[in-house]
Design a protein that fits this description.
It holds the Pfam family NUDIX_4. The protein has 15 helices and eight strands. The chain has 361 residues and is of the alpha+beta class. It folds into two domains: 216 residues, Endonuclease III, domain 1; 120 residues, Nucleoside Triphosphate Pyrophosphohydrolase, CATH 3.90.79. Strand 6 and strand 7 form a beta hairpin. Helix 1 crosses helix 11 and helix 8 packs across helix 11. The N terminus and C terminus are likely disordered.
Amino acid sequence: MTQAPAPVLPPEAFQRRLLAWHDRHGRHDLPWQHDRSPYRVWVSEIMLQQTQVATVIPYFTRFIARFPDVAALAAAEQDEVLHLWTGLGYYARGRNLHKAAREIVAHHAGELPLDVEALSELPGIGRSTAGAIVAQSSGRRAVILDGNVKRSLARLHAVEGWPGRPAVARRLWALAEHYTPHERLADYTQAMMDFGAILCRRGTPDCASCPFDDVCVAHARGEQRRFPESRPKKALPTRTTRMLLLQDAEGRVLLERRPASGLWGGLWSLPQFDDQAALRAWLDQHAPCSTLAPSWSPFTHVFSHFRLEITPQPARVRRLDSVGEARRWYDPDNPDSLGLAAPVKSLLTSLATFTLTAPDP
């Protein structure tokens, strides 16, 4: 791997340019910037992982209204936490947020520890997120290296290699450390994230408006889109599943809780089966008086590591005497506060069509 050049600007000059841009063009009115408590910053940083600001804002507002502090979040049931997370995706973030809140109450007297190392030991908080929480809520010096910062520094210095490789990550962390100031830490941290999101964005960066266009190595080479290098691509495998939309005589739908880990961990989903034979065998055992309607057209839900082809299978049953502890009836007209996987939530909203077309048993 070709070694990247030395820092292109002294730290003071870099900070001066960045903060001048941020003062004029950065984001200063985000919900978590008002009352920048460690808790509010923490919640926002977790929600912002792999999710755009515009998407996060309404979720953050609803979440904070229901869980205004660590104690309220720790006291909640996981179902309610995941219900407020429904649609935001990457549900492990919500589970870890809830788990971390309980650890904070149990081991830190209900206060987030404003120390990068201690924060990093909590579920769902990595080194960069811990740095952002410390810097933005306390003003103490802490370094961040989220996706926006990686992209900006990789272009500025033409850092070769995929940032997921340890040697490349070490180089980027060293650059982030080099440029991080000792003053205005909250502004600097926000500025670095905003700079990557607004100017040095993925795909087509706005180099004409960039305060570093005269010193950016990738720009000088005309290779902005080459940096940072992408993860080596692998073809996404496709998995298939059949989801059972089983309604009783009252129009309620049978749901089951997913295992704590794995796909949609801890969320409520429709019963899933590998194939139609397995689905029919389950019905024969648990709901022998059920009637199948024609299957709905399959659709695909894309995850980061695979594609899931889902075939919905509607069915009707007059009664089901026992559904077990991990299952429950769900009334779409009077929905409970449950965490639902996005495609399941979408299917439940489509049940009006099914109700009109499915044959009665």
